[in-house]
Design a protein that fits this description.
Largest interface: A-C, 38 and 40 residues
Order of helices and strands of chain A: HHEEHHHHHHHHHHHHHHHHHH
Largest sheet of chain A: 2 strands, antiparallel
Number of domains of chain B: 1
Radius of gyration of chain A: 23 Å
Chains: A mainly alpha (about 525), B mainly alpha (about 150), C mainly alpha (about 110)
Shape of chain B: elongated
Distance between the termini of chain A: 47 Å
Mean pLDDT of chain B: 87
Strand content of chain A: under 5%
Structural class of chain A: mainly alpha
Strand order of the largest sheet of chain A: 1-2
Shape of chain A: globular
Number of strands of chain B: 0
Number of domains of chain A: 1
Order of helices and strands of chain B: HHHHH
Low-confidence stretches of chain B: none
Number of helices of chain A: 20
Oligomer: heterotrimer
Low-confidence stretches of chain A: 511-518
Helix content of chain A: over 70%
Mean pLDDT of chain A: 88
Amino acid sequence: MIISQFVFVPLSAAFLIAIIGRKKENIASTIAMIATAWLFAASIIAFLKLPAADGLIIRNTSGWNAPFTISLVLDNLSSFMLIVISLISLTSAFYALQYINHFTGKWNFFALFMLMVAGMNGVVLTGDFFNLYVFMEISLISAYSLVAFGTEAEELEAAFKYATMGTITSTMILFGIGILYSYTSTLNMADVGLQLQRGGFPKLVFLVYGLFIAGFGLKTALVPFHAWLPDAHPSAPAPISAMLSGVLIKTLGVYAIVRIFFNVFNAPQVVLTIFLLLGTLSIVIGGLLSVVQWDFKRLLGFSSISQIGYVILGFALGTPLGILGGLLHLFYHAIFKSLLFLDSGAVEYATGTRDLRKMGGLSKELKVTSSTSMIGTLAISGIPPFNGFFSKLIIIIACVQAGHIGLGIIAALVSIVTLAYFLKVQKHAFYGVRKSAKIQEKVPFTLKTAMIVLAVLCLVTSIFLIPSIKAVTFEPIEKCVTDRTKYIDKITEDKGFDKNYLDNELSNNTKEYSGSQK
Amino acid sequence: MRNNYPNEGMSVIVKTITRFTVWLILFYGLYIVIHGHLSPGGGFAGGVIVALSYVHLTLAYGKNFVMERTNRSIMHTLEALGGLLYVLIGIVGLYLAGSFLANFLGVGKLYYLQSAGYIPILNIIICIKVGMGLYLVFFYLASYKAKKG
Amino acid sequence: MILYLMSFFLFMVGLYGAIIKRDLIKIILGLGIMGYSVNLFLILVAYRTNALAPILKKGVEISASSMVDPLPQALVLTSIVIELGITALMAALAIRIYEKYDTLDITKIRRLKG
């Protein structure tokens, strides 16, 4: 199984679009669709091949062995994230085929989109700290450019705000990586975990915790660091809003936090307490602030802050049931939040406005949009046969079982508030009296198909709760997070960790390196 | 070709000296690129210096003069082609030697110009990409005309 | 030790510039200074006293402990490239914001609120 194809396929697709797509515009969308379809098929094949390889596939790049090179590691958590990324990018790219007719510069959009997907795949697959930073920056720079894609005044302001805040925290992450390197003299994640376990944690590691929580917390939009999200998500074109809120926050933020704090630092209790506090604050503040919004996509942005708070709360509990709840809510939120953002994009395509005070009664003309948005609303509020109910229930039960009964009550109450503001959206946008918006165009075919696919998935993915299916798919993923010994042992038993590896390797290659030279 | 914009740019002294120093800067940049595996520098630093030689020309003669004489469409294509070639060399390394970006040419003898496998080739590819890319960024930032109102 | 404290002080200077200054261009410069301070910190991590540059020369004895650590120098090169990309993007955004809003003062560029 070639793992590096998840990085080089979207990269070469982006460069091909930049060469050929400048002259002929239709080829750009074809290349993007082929690349995202290939990635989706490859991610499912990778997930199916994992049990045969004992749950961990390691590929070292450039021919050298593990701590002297960058290693790409595929374990159950990575392949789960790859499936989420490729599913949402496939539906967003399909949606964007006709949505992008309202903008100029089609090839720009698809090239930046493929670069963002390449960066996210790289973050998920890498086993090296600095490589994580590089791929994170690749996808973030593409995201800054895509937020400003329409070049209206407000979109440029939102992109500048996002770029400033993102750069400050990325510099903090690099500072933390420098401090870790100075203590352990290696950049491989498993090796850092091993050295910290053997040598004891120094006092300086609390500074590293602080820098990483600030750095990755801004990418996750946790509450003190959430201020960029309500400006950036409405300004982006609708498929990019779906990608930003559906996958980018989760890969660069939640996946990186889980990988670093659970697998490398062995989940220290002080960090888990901080994340419990920040997660609860996110749930409450995101939920309360969405009630007063009148812009459709800005409301959905604040709702994303609230739901990511649920995911972080699930992971911060530390118990297996909490981690299972966090993982399930991550997957389900990607599906229904992307569906809601694509719906808002379809409404904007048809009427030209995002203001809820101007719409009303759209369900007569936009039948597919209103029925899929009703399905999305029921899923996010947690109504039984849809998938959101099961994940929120598991998180609340895990809270109560771990002894935080107050947090469980807060989570349940904010779920009712979620139902309230989404019903407000439904009333003002789709049912009720039409105020001043006029339907200017019909919603095209690819937009409708993407929304129907995601709405069907909202219902179908509830089957992951059936115990026999859950044991095959989600239990191994949760073991990756709670039990870090397999991750560290299998990578560090590579022959590169031998004392004589460098001397042997160099004397094999050229006879002139070993020893001194007169 | 005739200079159609003789009053733009800097004074005559600067324009005359620029005719020599542009080539000096360009060759200095190429020297840094080619000796990237033997002395500090390499693809990125050399690429920046190559881009600076074009910037030097633009500053001295004015942007309309340079706009007539350079073919920016070829610059865009070369830039994207550089990125594509880098990934293709990685894929060739995957098939010939088993891991992405493996060094499939021989390591060679120490201190020789033709040694260290594929590293000189990658340096030249990065020089093309960075040189063209930086000059295009400078050019579009300089020639942006704000629309009034 | 003094050098580490000075690089941290430079980080704080850059952070002050990025947070408190009102002009868009000064914010971009502040972010640049923050980036340079982290690069300086990475190179300081690699330093060994009385060691040479990690370049092999003919006729000089090669041993690993007589050279400074070359790995953070590669990290610094990559970090410089990334910051170049971000600075170019933010400069382009600043020019376009000036065209739309007619000012570079961030207290006046506040149409998105609430």
